[in-house]
Design brief:
The chain is α+β, with helices and mostly antiparallel strands. The chain contains 10 helices and 13 strands. The strands form 2 sheets. The chain has an 8-stranded antiparallel barrel. A 4-stranded antiparallel beta sheet has the order 1-2-3-4. A hairpin with a 6-residue loop joins strand 6 and strand 7. Helix 2 packs parallel to helix 3. The chain is elongated and about 105 Å long.
């Protein structure tokens, strides 16, 4: 029987589905075992034929506690005593008066049956309630997934027109070639759709990505949470303070897989996003576990309001540099319970170093206000 409720109490007793009645979490001891405990006599060590104690002795007898014997008094309807000797004598006198047997009073037997029946009813009711709750939550999750799927499909249709086909990609580039996008306008939180990744990995909840511009505008940094994988983005394409060439940004990313948290930092981890305007983008991303998959996203104005995403760039830099081959080996050693030394981040690339870089490295890592 699966237990869904705690033990039912009545006076000094508590009923449990497995052990029956308990007193102070101590079940009733059988009559024969209890009598053997009370009449045990230590015969000393086992001797050899020569009359000397054997080297290997059987396990020594271990007597039960005072609380154990007091609980047995309650189980068998007797008054408790405060000392161990007195309570054992009380139990032994009761057994000797009943042919060396312990008899459970009828009122306690009836109470055990009453509490057992009550426990079964309440336990069944709680099990049914939990099953209905699980079914309700599963239905809500199914409705939520369908709703997200409709919203995702609508976003894909809005940005790509006919979906992820090459024709729609070309049409998107042609129709927006005259739009000049400034990098600082892209600093925001984006709601992301990656159909192949979501279906293949059963990603729960919305996928998100955040972007921020470095102080010198030499790189756009960001982080993403795509359910099966999350990580840090670092732009590798040329940027200017005035505009994004071809409205397209190429990123290299490093991250961690969901579950065991294994890191990935391959040079093939490339993401390429084309911005349709300052609020929407489409592109592709490569991950060795999923191959190349399509990605579209739209700026979430409400979630981005009054947020300075550039403030998170120093933290993203530290996380990106810590995801490397050396630390991957250290984490593997740590999984076996061994200390592998302190983590060693990569040195900053020359294009990453800004006027505040040295100060950023000295700062203690703080909690990200956007998480």
């Amino acid at each position: 029987m699966i237990t869904h409720i705690p033990p039912i109490r009545s006076g000094p007793f508590a009923y449990h589905s497995i052990s029956g009645l308990e007193v102070d979490c101590i079940p009733r001891c059988s009559s024969d075992r209890l009598y053997n405990l009370l009449t045990y006599v230590d015969k000393g060590p086992v001797l050899t034929k020569k009359g000397v104690p054997r080297v290997h002795q059987p396990p020594r007898h271990k007597d039960e506690t005072l609380q154990f014997y007091q609980a047995q008094c309650v189980h068998y309807g007797l008054e408790k005593r405060s000392s161990k000797a007195a309570v054992k004598k009380k139990l032994l006198d009761h057994a000797d008066a009943n042919g060396q047997k312990f008899k459970v009073p009828k009122k306690i037997i009836d109470l055990e049956k009453q509490l057992g029946d009550e426990f079964d009813v309440k336990n069944k009711q709680e099990g049914e309630r939990r099953e209905k709750e699980r079914a309700r939550k599963a239905q809500e999750e199914a409705v939520g997934r369908k709703k997200r799927k409709r919203e995702d499909d609508a976003l894909v249709q809005e940005i790509r027109g006919e979906g992820f086909g090459e024709a729609s990609k070309k049409r998107s580039r042609k129709s927006n070639s005259s739009v000049r996008i400034k990098p600082h306008k892209l600093a925001a939180l984006y709601r992301v759709v990656a159909p192949d990744l979501s279906e293949g990995w059963d990603c729960a909840g919305p996928l998100t990505m955040r972007l921020g511009v470095s102080s010198t505008c030499s790189h756009i940094w960001g982080d993403f949470k795509f359910g099966a994988i999350e990580g840090i983005l670092r732009s590798t394409s040329s940027l200017t303070k005035e505009f994004v060439p071809d409205n397209t940004i190429t990123f290299h990313w490093r991250g961690r897989e969901e579950g065991e948290g294994e890191t990935t930092f391959s040079e093939r981890n490339i993401a390429k996003f084309e911005f349709v305007d300052e609020t929407k983008f489409c592109g592709t991303m490569y991950w060795e576990c999923a191959g190349t998959f399509d990605v579209v996203g739209r700026l979430d104005a409400a979630a981005s309001k009054n947020k300075v995403f550039g403030a998170a760039v120093p933290k993203w830099k530290r996380e990106y540099r810590s995801l490397n081959e050396d630390n991957y080996g250290r984490e593997e050693v740590s999984r076996w319970g061994k200390w592998a030394g302190d983590a060693r981040p990569d040195a900053p690339m020359s294009s990453d170093t800004s006027e505040n870089e040295s100060e950023d490295e000295k700062e203690d890592e703080e909690d990200d206000e956007f998480d």
